[in-house]
Design a protein that fits this description.
15 strands; 41% helix; alpha/beta; binds pyridoxal-5'-phosphate; six-stranded mixed beta sheet; 13 helices
């Protein structure tokens, strides 16, 4: 029997200390920006957290065997990826993980390759470690009313051949374009990086959010030397609980990462993150699958809305994530101007593509009740209609 989960009833997040909801100065904003979801997490996670709260003592954590068992079992059964316990380093988030791995694997001044557009914290993590951002621009591929992206393998090879460039950050699946890289693409990337001794950090935080019927390929299954970052935080909407894992099979690589995690003082996690991860990986699959169906419905609605109400704006073909990537070049204005204008005049908040290193796009977070998303899109349409060019 499939259980019914309610993603339609809006939860009022205002005043709950939500970055997404409480950052706007006006009260009536619909926030479709920061990548968290407006849905309560899975009931099994809430129950597990409740039991943990009832215990009443929240001292320092020793991560239990259950934690590793849950992580290993989930990845083996759900993704066909075998992890050994001794490969795992837990930490407080994927961004702290990526930053510490860059610190471990580079020296100041080294180049770190990213495929752009890219998640904005990749840029800050590279800069904060005094490294150089080396952009490998994704190639846009148009077909009909939609478009997608592929990795420019020739320019990747050129970037990797430069001895100054030591590391590449892969986002698998990719934020903000929603691409799930195919096994073939991942094998090409692995081949290029191996040829030139470039280490790959693969951020797989969006891997659970594939659209129904689509599967992702864990990068570790094509490149056993890579360092993988993963977390249940995006998929189960528990980012505020701050839990993530680094999987690094090579012992010497793991040792330098472990050193950096300690240097950065991100080696401790909190009891709620641990409890939530165990519940998510052991019991969260039915909820997650229902969520993926719901997001797929929101995406279908968004596509229909753009096709009928805003036909000059093209939507990138989505394979994973709950983030729609929309081409606004037809408007002849910058993405920042549209973000500001839509927020000011119509009280809908989307992210400017410039934040991800790509002008001419906006990113829309679709992870909210469908009625709220529809109202946000109506507001966006009004903002587009009344903007002064
Ligand atoms: C690709 C990617 N990595 C990492 C994060 C954030 O990870 P964390 O909150 O665990 O630091 C995000 C959040 O949107 C993301 O999109």
């Amino acid at each position: 029997m499939t259980r019914h989960f309610d993603f339609d009833t809006p939860v009022d997040r205002r005043g709950s200390g939500s970055y997404k909801w409480d950052s706007a100065s006006q009260q009536d904003v619909i926030p479709l920006w920061v990548a968290d979801m407006d849905f309560p997490t899975a009931p099994v996670i809430i129950d597990a957290l409740r039991r943990r709260v009832d215990h009443g003592v929240f001292g320092y954590v020793k991560v239990s065997d259950d934690y590793y068992d849950a992580l290993i079992s989930w990845n083996r059964h759900r993704h066909g990826w075998t992890i050994n316990r001794d490969m795992v380093i837990y930490t407080s988030g994927v961004v702290p993980a990526v930053s510490a791995i860059i610190k471990a694997l580079t020296r100041p001044g080294d180049g770190v390759i990213v495929n752009t557009p890219a998640y904005n914290c990749f840029f800050s993590s590279i800069r904060n470690n005094r490294c150089t951002i080396v952009e490998n621009l994704l190639i846009r591929v148009d077909s009909g009313d939609s478009f997608t992206y592929r990795i420019d393998l020739d320019s990747l090879e050129e970037a990797c051949a430069d001895p100054a460039n030591k590391v590449m950050i892969l986002c698998n699946p990719h934020n903000p374009t929603g691409r799930i890289w195919t096994r073939g693409e991942l094998e090409e990337i692995a081949g290029i990086c191996h040829r030139h001794g470039v280490m790959v950090i693969s951020d797989e935080i969006h891997c659970e959010l594939t659209l129904p019927g689509r599967e992702y390929t864990p990068y570790a299954t094509v490149d056993p030397d890579a360092v993988i970052c993963c977390s249940p935080s995006k998929a189960f909407n528990i980012a505020g609980l701050q839990i993530a894992n680094i999987v690094a099979p090579s012992e010497p690589v793991r040792a330098v990462i472990d050193r950096a995690i300690n240097d950065n003082e991100v080696c401790d996690v909190n009891p709620f993150g641990v409890t939530a991860l165990i519940a998510a990986y052991n019991h969260g699959a039915p909820w997650l699958d229902a969520l993926r169906d719901y997001i797929s419905g929101n995406y279908a609605m968004l596509l229909d809305f753009f096709a009928t109400e805003l036909p000059s704006l093209k939507v990138c073909s989505l394979e994973s994530t709950y983030l729609a990537w929309v081409d606004i070049t037809a408007l002849g204005i910058s993405s920042e101007k549209l973000e500001e204008h839509a927020l000011e005049t119509e009280r809908v908040w989307v992210n400017a593509g410039s934040m991800y290193g790509s002008e001419g796009y906006i990113r829309i977070n679709m992870a909210c009740p469908r009625s709220r998303l529809l109202e946000g899109l109506r507001r966006l349409k009004r903002a587009v209609a009344n903007i002064v060019r």
